[in-house]
Amino acid sequence: MKTFHIKILTKLGSTQYKTIQAETESEALRKAEVKFPLHKEISITEEPRQAAPSGEPDLAFERNLAEVKLRSREKKARSARREGWGFMIGGVALQGLLLFAGFVTLWLAIPIIWGVSRIAYGSSERGKVQEALQALDTPA
Q: Cα–Cα distance between 59 and 70 in angstroms, integer?
């Protein structure tokens, strides 16, 4: 059996390097496809990936990590902005609705209050007039 060095590019954008034992290249690719179903591309490399010497950062990895972090911050900022607009528009709409409800309430309440006060005035005035009429009708 031969050893094949496989480079796997995943659908999420990461790259993995694996070693697979197989008789032929096509068999090695087939094994890699079965073992890593979420792949975008699988290829055979000539030699294994050389790790950076200890103490030295992998610049491509660092750049990719920084880019992912910045894109995450950008997405959070967009989400916060959208949420802010939603709260502001919802608040204005709610205030408008409450203001409209207040106007409708007053529009309906003022005639009712006026009518109740006229009923009360009419009842008390009617009672006074009836007492005065009774006083006139009774001989003194």
A: 16
